[in-house]
Each structure stands twice: as C-alpha cells, then as structure tokens.
Amino acid sequence: MSPELVGLAYWAETSIKLGIALAVIPTASLILVYLFLFKMMAFMQSRLGPNDTGPYGSLQLIAEAVKFLQKEDINPAAADRRVFRLAPVVVLASTFLLYVVLPMGPDAVVEALDTGIFYAMAVSSLSVLGILMAGWASANKYALLGGLRAAGQLIAYELPLILAVMGVVIQADSLNLQTIVEAQASGEIFGIGWIGNPFILTQFAGFLIFMISAQAELTQTPFDMPVAETELVGGFHIEYTGFRFLLFFMAEFGTAFAFAALASVMFLGGWWIPGFAIDAPILNVLGPGVMLGKILLVSMLIFWVRFTYPRLREDQLQKFAWKVLIPLALANIVLTGIFKVVF
Description:
13 helices; mainly alpha; disordered N terminus; single chain
C-alpha cells in the first residue's frame, strides 16, 4: 500500500513488501509441491503419496527441507568453487525479482512498474546465467551438457513467450500489469460487461503459446532435457547437495508459481472480482485469495502436462519453437493489431 494510506516511511513500506515477497517464494514452493507433486501425481498414478508426516502428509516437504539442510555441502575437487556456490543464488534471485511486480490487489503490489511486463520477461531470463554457471563450474560433463541444453532451450522459448505477451500489451495499451488487470475489468465481450473482458477469450492463442513456452522455460516435462535423468543423470545440478540443491528446487517451483501468476494477471483478469469497482479497497483483502485460486488452476495445467507427456528429443524441441510457436505468435500479433485498429 502507499505511504499515504498507512502512514509509513518509504523505507519501512519497502522493507515490509520485500519481506513479504521473500516469504512468498518458499510458501509458493510448499503449496505447489504438496498439492501437485505429492498429491495430484499420486492420484494420477493410483497411489497414496506421502501421508504419514503431518495431517495427510502436509508436513512431508518440511521434513524433506530439514533433511537437505542437514546434508553435507560438497564441492567437487575440480570445480570452480566461487562460481559453483554462486550459481543457485543467481537462479533463486531471478525468481525473487519476478515477485516484485506481481499484483495481488489494487494496492497490494511491491512496485507497480509502468514497464512491468518488460521487467518480468527480462528478469526471468536471468536464470539461464545461473544454470550455465552451475553446468560449467561443476567440472562434470553431464552437468555441462545439461547447462548447454538449458541455454539453447531457454533462448529458443523466450521468443514465443515474449511474442505471446505482445498480444496482451497491444490489447491493453500498456506494459503495466495493474493496467492490464484494469483493462480486462473495464472491458466488454459481445456487449456483456459484468464479467469484463478476460483476455483469454480474445487472446486464447496467446495464452496457449505462453503456457507452452512457460513449460519449456521451467524445464518441465515434456521439455525437461536439461535435467533428463535417463540421459544426463540429473543435468546441470547433478553435483549439488544439501541446501544448494534446495535452492534450485525452491527456484523451480517458485518460478512455476510466478509464471502461473503472470498468466492469471494477463489472461484471467488477475485479482479483480466481477461486480466490484476496480479500486475497491476490499479487493486488497479478497484479491489475493482470488489470485491464489487462479494461480492454482493454471499451475494444475502445468503439472498435468508434466505428468502426462513423454520427453521430446532435442531436435523436436527446437523445431517446435522455431517452426510452430514463433510463426503462430507472430500471426497472433498481426491479427490482434488488425482487430485493434478495426474495432
């Protein structure tokens, strides 16, 4: 919230917001891992999943985290130790920076940047630096191959990811995530205004391209070549143990949560609730709950695909990005521009 509303100094308000953002990442990882990696996957495979530690196994992940913290922090003898230790921090920092611009209500955002989408796309691409650092510094051929695969994959799929976002930017006339929510709340579809105009109705192709590209950016199956256990026995983080491996694990699921939040804001109306004024103060209370519901819905799609489809080959992955997704994304931008001018 703004200092005028709560009477706090700028530094105090910013410290509170950053503290909340820091707390959200492990919390988001806990939610996604428990609901989808433990329970949903177990249900799809007709088994119980973890159910002994805490009610319905709800404390299992905390037990796993304690286990990792107790493990020895091993550095390979031939590794570049400084780069090796810094790599997971770079990856996690990329995830943390995404949460700075994610809005959860009219005032519930760390920083409502005018270039919020541009900022989010830029900082999300920083993770590839940490992955390359991990692969190269590990002094392990499998880790290096995983890092190179990740670099090629992330560079290829960042293009359709950004192009898919452009359709939303054109339709909303803004790069600001809050303004994009407001554009959906104040819009109409087929003359109906009470539900606004969630861009998933007019940008469904963009939504599909964004979700496929996000799946690849997250290195989730069927795009998990950088960590392919059957080929690279773990990929770029094969040499990591203890809390450093835990940082990679948190970054993976924290980023999944952030991408689901971005999809919710850009295509599902974000925190706005039909029937409420866009600036209603009550949305600062109800909005986070609405956003969480939409994030879990989008996350379910991400993990459903992960648990369903087999891994692609490297050449199939690259062809799919360059020959299918990018042309479709460009066509979506052209059509969006035409409809924007005509209507």
